[in-house]
Amino acid sequence: MPANRLTMTICRWRGPMRLSSRKSSSTLKGAAQTGGAFFMATGAVSRMTIACGNAAWSSVAKPVKSKRELCMTSDTDPFAHHPELQGKIVDPEVSFFRTFKPSDFDERMQAMGVPAHWRMTDDEREASRRKTLDGHLNDDLWVFAYGSLMWDPGFRFVEVLKAEVSGYSRSFCLKDELGGRGSREAPGLMAALDDGPGCTGLAFRITKDQVDEETEILWRREMATGVYVPTIIGAETAEGTVKCVAFIANHQAKRIRRDLTREEQVRYIATGTGVLGTSLEYIENLAEHLTALGIDDQEVFSLLAAAKGFDKSA
């Protein structure tokens, strides 16, 4: 098989596999959160790094009892431009985001005392998707990633490029009190895309025949609670300018807190914890991926250093 052609089949079941794997018997109890939504899962997991041609995927596979084949094919290696990302991006086929539905957590939110309108309705979310993508459903679509989408996009893609957008910056203004990486007692903090001089992240390309299906998955994740405004913007890459859908901070959303002091930001990152893990782990993961790409975001590294040095006993 040519080195620049990627074809992989991932089978989710226990037992012998033709693909090499590094298995862990640890128990996963976690969640994933962006845009104010999260999911939770428990069970034994297998951590796999799967290589084929020039590509490699790193994933956490959720075991299932029946054999279920999950396939993703591409005419080119999606990591051809950035081999340093091999093994650092979760395979979309085994991402829990592929089946995530905000409505699945209505009961949990009710038990936490969260108002019933904590999320957008399915109709509201679909209307947002249709409006944003009007005129873009019949062409390949790029998605700009600046936070957790960089390492766990959840949607199928065939190409990834380092990308820079102007007029926006990565901002730690998304306050988390819904239980993902923070709580009401100890809020967490994550990044949103807000006004600023510029932001460097990743652009993922979805093929036109998969745009409709994959953006439904993307919208369930990013537009669960309405903390973002989906917008088509231009992004500069080594291959030229591409138009991307990006999720911009919604200044009308209560969880977007542009008024946080530096002390509050550091404290939330240092102490926020939830079913997903800690806010500190979130920024550590972000810093790791920025470093791999040679992206110098001083705000990220400065906040990380301050959070690591935070005195929790004070």
Sum this structure up briefly.
This protein has six helices and eleven strands. By secondary structure, the protein is an alpha+beta fold.
Write structural notes for this entry.
The longest helix is centred in the last third of the chain and has 15 residues, at 279-293. The termini are far apart. With 314 residues, this protein is an alpha+beta fold. It is globular, with a radius of gyration of 19 Å. Helices cover 21% and strands 33% of the residues. It is built from six helices and eleven strands. α4 packs across α6 and α5 (279-293) crosses α6. β4 and β5 (55-61) form a beta hairpin. The protein has helices at 106-111, 122-132, 211-222, 262-271, 279-293, 298-308, and strands spanning 6-11, 27-34, 37-44, 46-52, 55-61, 69-74, 141-145, 159-176, 188-206, 228-237, 240-249. It has a five-stranded mixed beta sheet with strand order 8-9-7-11-10. Strands 1-6 form a two-stranded antiparallel sheet.
Key words describing this protein structure:
314 residues, alpha+beta, five-stranded mixed β-sheet, disordered N terminus
Furnish the topology, listing elements before pairings.
Blueprint: E1 6-11, E2 27-34, E3 37-44, E4 46-52, E5 55-61, E6 69-74, H1 106-111, H2 122-132, E7 141-145, E8 159-176, E9 188-206, H3 211-222, E10 228-237, E11 240-249, H4 262-271, H5 279-293, H6 298-308
Parallel strand pairs: 7-11
Antiparallel strand pairs: 1-6, 2-3, 4-5, 7-9, 8-9, 10-11
